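Risk register update: the risk of archive-format incompatibility is retired. Evidence:
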Amino acid sequence: MKQVFESSRIRFVEVSERLVNDYLILVNDYENVNRFIGGKHKTFTAEQELEWIHEKLREKAMVFSMLEKTGGAFIGNIELMDVKHDVGELGIAITAAKQNAGYGTEAVSALAEFAGRQLGLKRIVLRTDPQNSRAIHVYQKCGFIEYDRTDEHVYMELRR
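Archived output:
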């Protein structure tokens, strides 16, 4: 797996077929992950995940799998989507086994730094579920500010 960048405890690598079983655990965990990333209580198959991996690699999408530097355990995925000019949208999902360990804050900060330094982004936006208070807290710790809210989403941004 090709490493793209790193932080103190995380290696950010390209998505890989070798992680398909980890991806399945992540996306099929409705209670802790899927419901916060737009899930419809649907179960994904290995074939669907392999198709997703191939699509992301073909598109040269800026989606990175996060692995612990010590031991190499899978943490989750983080992505910059819809990058246009100097703005990109952040998305992140952390597997339940690695939640509440500070990885979210470290990952969001590292991606924001990478996006500004390597890609020249001046603004990063995101949307999250209003019930996902842990994620909102992480985003605020990383400097994101809420700029809109609906029943379905909290919209936040980070300006650099």
